[in-house]
Amino acid sequence: MARAEHVDSAALARLIGGWRAEDVPLPHALADALAELIAGNVLVDGAALPPQRALAAALGVSRGTVAEAYAELAARGRLTSRQGSGSRIRRDRSAGGDHPVEGRLASFGRTRRPVELDLSSGALPALSLVRDVVAAVDLGELDVYLADDGYYAAGLPRLRTIVAEQYTTQGLPTEPDQILVTSGSQQAVWLCASSLVAPGDEVLVEEPSYRGAIEAFRTAGARLTGVPVREDGLDLDHLERVVHRAALLYCQPAAHNPTGISLPAAARKRLSEIVGRHGVLTIEDRSCADLVLDDRGVRPPLPDPANPGSANTGSVIRIGTASKLLWGGLRVGWIRAERPMIVRLTQAKAALDLAAPVIDQMVTAELLAQADRARQERTRRLRAHLAEAAAVLAERRPAWRWTPPHGGTALWIDTGTDAVAMAERARRRGVLVTAGPAFSPSNAQRSHLRLPFWRPVEQFAHAVELLE
């Protein structure tokens, strides 16, 4: 959790995960799950737990169950309760310092019990092209790398060249030394957050936004301010009113996660003008930009500001990845920035993991040489799945509201009800989905669900039936 005085009920429900256990009374199982979070330093010393009624609603249990769990934790010496201040965490301080996390990426870790269907992530299976390329790896090229130590801090030269060429083709002239290869785009986000944000800095993010970015910036100590995302993308009028006080802006103008919205060309131009005029360092996350659903193709990167400030302000850092288009198992992403920034971030990455895996980079370089083919295949498949999912929702959940996405792998659905409680009820039936607060810097969006549509239509329909 963030270092806030109060723990939000939706955030706590997300962190607890699949806490129920067979043959264990509910209050005891809940107390055990909370004690695990306390022992693991996820819930910080002194933090106030949600009111009993709020947590009961989020978990879909009675208030009495939560009251008994809190009482058991108090008896174990893990909680203190005072009139007017609620229940607060009491952790053994000898266990070490506080390093709280938000748990927004919990769906990528293990759950306590198997589930029938996991729709908590929009990550895609590999394209057939991936297997073909892996099987045809050039061992002669590999021999060259095997003769060296294998540590290429900024990435394999060939891969950096191919990524740079793609940016140039998309209208942003780029040289290979402006590219840093990372272990996926998530590492790229964390590198930027840990290297460029100081505790207390105000960081602007979309509301809603990519949950991994929220966690990364929160962990770096940033104060997050949400900028609303409308049906046509980021609210630029709102951005104009708040950008002057921010140290950094994080945004996804193309195939925004979780809504799938892409900013129109005129809005992208205006966004670039705002960045330049106010001199705010901007991270453009293009992780989902290759996953196109409409007929407009891949949106180009944001134009560079006409009059950027210093080397660290008023400029745009781009983040990309091969994992979304090709396969999540290829942990290869990249950062595109001006040379001084690449040097700075390369030093930070080298201290973290020395370098990205060589063989993954070799495979990715071969695959990116066929990126157009990969995009066409992804688009064809995703469009077919989207059409099937839309038909299911029209028939079985006509009251749900969602804006047709321009890209990505999921629908951002307003259920019109408490989606946190809905997700918990679905979890008990063996289906994992992610409710809106996971994507909100303020734990808002409580009526929303992010629902991936790329699964076979039978699985999607089954999940929708269990979401009630």
Overall description:
- The chain has 468 residues and is of the alpha/beta class.
- Helix content is 40%, strand content 14%.
- It contains 16 helices and 14 strands.
- The strands form 3 sheets. An 8-stranded mixed sheet has the order 4-11-10-9-8-5-6-7, sandwiched between helices. It has a 4-stranded mixed sheet with strand order 3-13-14-12. The chain has a two-stranded antiparallel ribbon with strand order 1-2.
- β8, α11 and β9 form a beta-alpha-beta unit.
- α2 (26-39) packs across α4, α3 (52-59) crosses α4 and α14 (371-396) packs across α16 (457-466).
- The longest helix is centred in the last third of the chain and has 26 residues, at 371-396.
- The protein is globular, with a radius of gyration of 23 Å.
- The model is unreliable at 93-100 (pLDDT under 50).
